[in-house]
Structure formats: C-alpha cells, structure tokens
Design goal:
The protein is an alpha/beta fold. Helices cover about 40% and strands about 15% of the residues. The protein has helices spanning about 15-20, 30-35, 50-60, 100-120, 130-145, 155-160, 165-185, 230-235, 235-245, 250-260, 275-285, 290-295, 300-310, 335-345, 365-380, 380-390, 390-400, 405-415, 425-440, 475-485; strands at about 40-45, 85-90, 150, 190-195, 215, 320, 345-350, 355-360, 445-450, 455-460, 465-475, 500-510, 515-520. The chain is globular.
C-alpha cells in the first residue's frame, strides 16, 4: 500500500488538512444542519476529540472558502457561500495559573486587535475587555458584515485554576462579562460556536434568555466529533485492507479496533464513536495497538479536582448519574462522574428512561488502562512498583492459566502498595484494587458484570482464558466458589471457545491483602 498522508502531528487547520492530507472524515452535514437551524451553539467533548478542527472547519465555511469543500456533503446543498468576518478565539494553549485575569485580558486584546487589523476597522480602546468586544462586533457588523464568533476551549481558564479559588473567581467574573456580549449583541452576530470540556452554568452565556443551543448530548450530533464504524470502514478502507492480515483477518482486526478505540457514547441512544486521535496514530504507526490518546497526558484539571475534593475514586466503576446532573455546574459544584465523562475517561453505557439515570463506564481498553495508571500514579506508588518488578510474570501467568503464580505475585504486589483509594475495605474495594493492577498491565478486567443469574465481581480476559472471580472479605473461600457454581456465571461465555477459570478469592480487612483462594 502507498502510505496515505493522514492529518496527524498537530494538524488542526481545515485548510491545511484539505490541501495537504489525503483523508477527511466528512462532518459538513452536521455543520450545515447546525448553522442553518441555530444562532448560538455549544458543544462539549473530551480533549483530543477534534473540537479545534471543527472550529477551523466552521471558520472556513463562513469565510466562504468554497474550494476547500469540493466533494463534501455541504457542496451539494443550498448553502449561501457568503463571506463573513470571523472572530476566532482559542484558550486551549494558554497558561492562566499565574495572574490569570491579566493573562486573559492580554490574550483577548491581542486577538481582537488582529481581527481589527485583518478587516481594516478602528475601534476605541477605552473601558474593559467586554467594551472592546462590543465595539469590534458592532464595528464589523456596520462596516464589513455580521461577524461569526468562534470560542474554542472557552472553559480552559476556569479549569486551569480550579484549585485556585481567588484566581478562578476573578477569571469567572471577567469571562461573564465577555461572554455576555454574545447574548446581548446577538442581533449583530451571524453565528456563534462555543466549545469546551465542561458547562459552567454561572458563566453568563449559559444563563438567562438567549442561551446557546447545547448539542452535546443531542442524538443528531452524537458523531459531529469522532468516527463511526461506518465512517471507519469507508474513509479508512485502504488502511484496513493493508493491515488486516497482520491482525488475523479483517473481522478480527475490526473487532480489535472496536475494543481498543471505539465505545465513546455521548447520547442516551448509545451510538458509539472512535477517538480520532487514537485511530489516526494507530494507522500512522503501522497498525500498532498502543495507548496514543492517553500518552498525551491526563488533563491537569482532573488531578487538581481530585486533590482538592479528596474523592473516593473506588466508586468509579459502573457509576450512575442522574440525567440532570451532567451539566449546569455552579461555582464549586463540579462532581467527579460528569467530570470524568467530559474528560473522556467515562462514557454512557446505559440509560434508564423510567428513572432518568445514566450508567457510566469506560469506553474501551485504552481508556480503562489510562485511568488505572492515572489513579495509581497519583494515589499510590503502584505504577512504580510494577515498573520496578517482574510485572511480566503477572501477564504470563494469566495468559498461561497459571493461577498459583498469578496469585502469589498479586499478593506480593498488594502487600507492597500503599493504597489510599478508599476509606473502607469492602468487596468492591478489592475488586477495584485488583482490576487496577490488571488494567495497568494492558489486559482487560471488568468489574460488576451483570448476568441473568446475578452479578459477577470481576471478569479478566487474557488471551485464550476468561477468569471469573468472586471476592469475599473475611469469609470462607468455599462461599465464593459455591456462589459462582450455583449462579452458573460461566454460562454467558460458553460459546466463546475459550478456557473459563472460576476463582474464589478471600481478602482480609486486618491483613489488607488476599489470604486464601481456590478455583473450580
């Protein structure tokens, strides 16, 4: 295969992508619908999900750069190719942790000055930054045309200072005034598009009348960022054909891609998408399965939040969240589960319409391991211990069905790690501690697996083996084994053609470790 040039290495410009790269997953149908139906739009998506490229695409569209859209969906529509002035401000790469309000003012003044220079208008620079924003918008509308306003990563100043209340409050007040201009002077604006990770209710753009249309969880826009299965097989057919043999044939390859990079769901309809960043880097690196998204680093705001709140992270697995609590954050009411969801570590796995609750879980193998490593790096010395020990023994023991070696090594590991993940020792705590180890090793460990006969504590997938584990605290191991047998947990895996190992494990509160185990 002749290697195609993929849009990686920091390509976030739509113009650069269309001129220099060989692949663009066409999202212009969504952009056309959105820009035709709404005046102001807000979209929340995790980092590295293509928000900046989407902003650039919208900018090119409203600049009427028609040649860039040849062959795309929107080229065949009735879109009016009329050029509008564009005010495009991005906060994603700025540092607000020191003198944040002053830094914000400098950035906004610079960006607005650039807009004035580009379109040849002159405005008075008295008053605060909000006054300047008003003059730029009205000046453009009067002399050039109604502008399009694009704000990328609008919430980065607030997230960057989440653990600095004084800075955060000053930034919030300044941003309130700045964003209120979009609402108050809407008649002078053609279209406004705002992106971010979170939705802060008390930032004025999200309160009162004329607030943006939030498309973040609307089914029509579930795949405005990311890649669907259909798009994967359509736009990346040459790569799939080229690398299928390397991974055991087309079906095996597609299934592994799904397990590793797919699974992000942003609506209750649960339409999954792939993380584009992971897919592109996978193909660019000769189809090697690696943790490309997580290698870019965990968002600093998440660590700051966990340090500030002291959250009991053991409850992350199979989290449940009331539908109304996904957004609308007030000053200091951000909670862990929606933050993990919006950061990309959790996704919607189910929705109970009767009670209005979402169930959240990890989207895929890559993210499951990323969060395990993140928690261990910051809440224990687990990762260092694994790095300094023969952790390959744990993997090989599972892959070879050697439970004696696995349990001996696991007991040593748990004895060594100083966990501060939970305030209490429960069966669920043990599940989390063990699954954290397995996920850091890159294998797949799922907790709280529901079946028609009951709920399995943990299921480990390791090569040709499936391990069904029942944990008990300060109880006989026979109790765990009887439960596995009586409820016939293995039945749902009977047709997978793999060796099923049923294991009972007993954990001691006093010893804070495994004290016995058995299998059937």
């Amino acid at each position: 295969m002749d290697r195609r040039k993929l849009p990686i290495g920091g390509v976030q410009s739509f113009g650069e992508l269309r001129r220099e790269c060989d692949v663009y997953v066409d999202k212009t149908m969504h952009i056309h619908n959105m820009a035709s139906r709404y005046k102001t739009v807000f979209l929340s998506r995790p980092r590295r999900f293509g928000k900046s490229l989407l902003c650039s695409t919208i900018e090119s569209l409203f600049r009427a750069e028609k040649e860039l859209f040849e062959g795309l969906f929107i080229a065949g529509t009735d879109w009016e190719w009329k050029a509008h002035p564009v005010i495009h401000i991005g906060f994603g790469h700025s540092d607000f942790t020191n003198n944040g309000a002053e830094a914000l003012t400098i950035i906004l003044e610079r960006e607005l000055d650039n807009v004035c220079s580009e379109y040849g208008i002159s405005v008075e620079k008295t008053g605060d930054i909000s006054d300047l924003f008003v003059r730029v918008i009205t000046g453009l509308a009067r002399k050039v045309g109604r502008p399009v306003v694009i704000i990328d990563e609008y919430d980065n100043p607030l997230l960057a200072t989440i653990n600095q209340p004084e800075f955060n409050e000053r930034l919030r007040e300044k941003l309130k005034g700045f964003y209120s201009v979009i609402k108050q002077y809407g008649e002078h604006i053609r279209f406004a598009f705002i992106t971010g990770v979170t939705k802060f209710a008390q930032v004025s753009v999200f309160s009162g009348m004329n607030q943006p249309q939030d498309i973040s969880m609307m089914a029509d826009y579930c795949d405005i960022c990311g890649v669907t299965q259909e798009e994967l097989e359509k736009f990346f057919a040459p790569e799939i054909d080229a690398y299928s043999e390397k991974h055991g044939g087309r079906e095996n390859y597609l299934e592994r891609l799904r397990e590793f990079y797919n699974g992000y769901c942003f609506t209750k309809e649960r339409i999954p998408v792939y993380n584009t960043y992971g897919l592109l880097n996978h193909f660019e690196n000769s189809a090697d399965f690696a943790h490309y998204w997580s290698m870019t680093g965990a968002p600093s705001f998440l660590l700051k939040y966990l340090e500030m709140k002291g959250t009991d992270t053991v409850n992350i697995e199979e989290a449940r969240m009331e539908a109304g609590k996904f957004g609308g954050y007030k000053d200091n009411t951000i909670t862990l589960f929606p933050l993990l969801y919006q950061a990309g570590y959790l996704t919607i796995s189910d929705y109970d319409e009767k009670i209005g609750f979402y169930r959240l879980n990890y989207p895929n193998i890559e993210v499951r391991k990323a969060l395990a490593v993140f928690l261990s790096d910051n809440y224990s010395n687990a990762q260092n211990i694994l790095n300094d020990s023969p952790s390959i023994e744990l993997i090989n023991a599972l892959l070879e069905g050697n439970m004696d070696e696995f349990m001996d090594t696991l007991k040593w590991y748990l004895q060594t790690v100083d966990y501060s993940l939970s305030s209490k020792i429960t069966e669920f705590y043990v599940e989390f501690a063990v699954s954290n180890v397995i996920n850091m090793l890159g294998l797949r460990c799922i907790n709280e697996v529901h079946t028609a006969n009951g709920r399995m504590d943990s299921v480990i997938h390791a090569g040709e083996y499936i391990y069904i584990i029942e944990f008990k605290v300060d109880k006989p191991v026979e109790t765990a084994l009887r439960q596995i047998k009586r409820r016939d947990y293995a039945l749902i895996y009977a047709k997978e053609g793999k060796k099923i190992v049923k294991v009972g494990v007993v954990f001691s509160r006093e010893a804070r470790n495994i004290v016995s185990w058995g299998m059937i």
